[in-house]
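[step 3/7] inverse_fold.run input=structure_tokens len=620
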């Protein structure tokens, strides 16, 4: 949205809308899916205008990175543990920061976090398209990655763009960029960092397919991408965290993106070590040079999406952005400020192999043996462990082993289908005590698939998750900026579910599309009113939706004992016992549970784990 984003930066109101949080709830409400909206508002895709998934800077000098580089054997779950910054890195960065290894180190980092990982064939013709290490909604990849390096041998100090299709770095500008970025971000402690990574979003790539709702997906993708990079960096011995509290206009101008279709969204900062500080001191500061290269046009025409641009403009921060607002990690109070320490993983698999073979499942095979409860709890435990980010209140560069736990805004609600020693039904993951809380029992495959926009994979999985964000608290603390943060958090959880499932021999997929308020009604956040989930499911049944006739649902219905309970949702007898208990306490203000646009806690992401069906389009 080249010409459209520039209008955001040129608007005199830019940076003044963050505390008008009515805009956050208005956007979220306007971009919800309902059973009727997806039919009335169905969109046709203009395949001739599909955005190019790869950005390149024509005329910029290019530095090739070694493909298929070696990688440490650190386990996937061990890397997730290291994200909290409370354990020593498996190998110190200083031990690999030698004259012969620096460029190779960058190659290893990017190859195992943001690179192309596989290719798929287009059925019916000779076309093919790529998959990447980092997942993306619709495989559209709105996230672009830039790397500012200092004191690396074999490569000049400067700002580089990562070109994923060629596994190469394009030099955008020479100079001491880590120091300029540290000043722009108002984090002087990062001036001597060996690397600062910039993550931007190209909203148009997602909006081409998903329209106004695309902003949600762009933020999900950012959460996945930053976690992908942080895990790889930790495995390579360099600890760091995310910085997302900054003045947007200042950083946009600094990065030369004022007239671009990209918006800076997050920065990954890796504080200096004793070795890198020594090396940095030997190098003089060089002023940043003019930008090289012209960005390629991604589409012949871009479509303006007012709501998407509006929520981004509403979450822009003023200059200077000032200190990051702090919030008490209220969910830790009852446990005395510390969560229980659980035993290490029962089994693990090397992160380097896992990230390269990870794929997003297209559907799951409901006939395979079930997952064990131990595996389920291991996945949930590691996916919700602490990680470092400025808005979480645990990353300010002052300590490599922070004692304070980060603040969480996302709670996981689980629909269990096929898990040994775990009754089918709905659960809540209590991250304070690291255990599942059973909410009610019953076969929920059909209703889970319905809630997930009638996608059978949500019912064929071993389990599916609704990620519920405390939007009200995020908005109270951060203003509209909190909308970005909760989606970042959901993406970070999703990335760890992806990799954890793969490490245990399972598969996973993120689901960004769901019937928002039907989820809220089903979980008890929203009063049923006239538009009940019962009504929606029955309408879908009358329309003979394929989802409701999936093999998994038919098998479950056949095996269901008719007199086991009285159905509440569906006459199939699959959904709920009629005496189900309330899933969630209603808000203290009764009017909030009747107004879907004002709900304090709302669903922002779905995720499913199971055994994927083979994809014949994958190239060998």
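[step 3/7] decode complete -> sequence:
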């Amino acid at each position: 949205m080249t010409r459209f984003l520039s209008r955001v930066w040129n608007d005199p109101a830019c940076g003044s809308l963050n505390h008008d949080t009515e805009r956050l709830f208005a956007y979220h409400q306007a971009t919800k899916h309902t059973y009727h909206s997806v039919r009335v508002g169905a969109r046709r895709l203009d395949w001739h205008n599909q955005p190019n998934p790869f950005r390149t800077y024509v005329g910029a000098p290019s530095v090739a990175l070694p493909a298929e580089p070696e990688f440490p054997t650190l386990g996937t779950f061990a890397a997730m543990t290291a994200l909290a910054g409370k354990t020593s890195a498996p190998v110190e960065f200083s031990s690999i920061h030698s004259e012969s290894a620096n460029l190779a180190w960058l190659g290893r980092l990017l190859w195992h976090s943001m690179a192309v990982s596989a290719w798929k064939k287009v059925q019916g013709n000779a076309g093919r398209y790529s998959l990447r290490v980092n997942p993306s909604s619709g495989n559209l990849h709105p996230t672009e990655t830039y790397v500012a390096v200092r004191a690396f041998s074999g490569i000049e100090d400067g700002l580089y763009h990562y070109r994923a299709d060629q596994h190469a770095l394009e030099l955008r500008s020479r100079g001491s960029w880590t120091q300029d970025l540290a000043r722009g971000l108002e984090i002087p402690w990062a001036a001597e960092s060996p690397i600062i990574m910039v993550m931007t979003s190209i909203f148009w790539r997602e909006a081409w397919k998903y329209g106004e709702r695309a902003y949600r997906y762009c933020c999900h993708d950012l959460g996945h991408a930053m976690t992908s990079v942080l895990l790889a960096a930790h495995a390579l011995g360099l600890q760091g965290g995310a910085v997302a509290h900054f003045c947007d206009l200042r950083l946009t101008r600094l990065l030369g993106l004022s007239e671009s279709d990209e918006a800076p969204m997050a920065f990954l900062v890796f504080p200096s070590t004793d070795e890198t500080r020594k090396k940095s001191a030997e190098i003089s500061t060089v002023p940043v040079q003019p930008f090289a290269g012209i960005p390629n046009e991604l589409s012949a025409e871009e479509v303006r999406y007012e709501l998407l641009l509006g929520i981004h403009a509403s979450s822009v921060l003023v200059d200077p952005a000032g200190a990051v607002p702090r919030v008490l990690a209220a969910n830790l109070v009852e446990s005395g400020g510390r969560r229980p320490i659980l035993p290490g993983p029962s089994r693990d698999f090397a992160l380097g192999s896992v990230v390269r073979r990870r794929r997003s499942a297209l559907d799951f095979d409901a006939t395979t043996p079930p997952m064990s409860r131990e595996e389920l709890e291991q996945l949930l435990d590691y996916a919700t462990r602490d990680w470092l980010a400025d808005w979480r209140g645990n990353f300010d560069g002052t300590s490599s082993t922070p004692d304070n736990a980060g603040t969480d805004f996302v709670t996981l609600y689980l629909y269990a289908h096929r898990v040994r020693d775990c009754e089918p039904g709905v659960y809540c993951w209590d991250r304070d005590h690291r255990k599942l809380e059973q909410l009610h029992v019953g076969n929920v495959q059909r209703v889970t698939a319905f809630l997930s926009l009638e996608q059978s994979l949500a019912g064929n999985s071993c389990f599916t998750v609704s990620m519920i964000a405390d939007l009200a608290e995020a908005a109270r603390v951060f203003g509209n900026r909190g909308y970005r943060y909760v989606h970042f958090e959901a993406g970070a959880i999703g990335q760890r579910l992806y990799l954890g499932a793969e490490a245990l021999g399972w598969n996973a997929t993120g689901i960004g599309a769901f019937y928002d308020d039907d989820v809220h009604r089903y979980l008890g956040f929203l009063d049923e009113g006239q538009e009940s989930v019962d009504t929606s499911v029955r309408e879908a049944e009358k329309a003979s939706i394929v989802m409701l006739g999936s093999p998994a649902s038919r098998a479950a219905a056949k095996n269901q004992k008719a007199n086991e309970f009285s159905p509440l949702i569906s006459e199939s007898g699959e959904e709920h016992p009629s005496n189900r208990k309330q899933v969630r306490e209603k808000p203290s203000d009764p009017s909030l549970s009747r107004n879907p646009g004002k709900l304090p806690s709302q669903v922002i992401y779905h995720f499913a784990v199971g055994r994927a069906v083979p994809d014949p389009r994958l190239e060998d």
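[step 4/7] annotate
The chain has two domains: 2-314, 354-397+405-584+596-610.
The mean pLDDT is 86.
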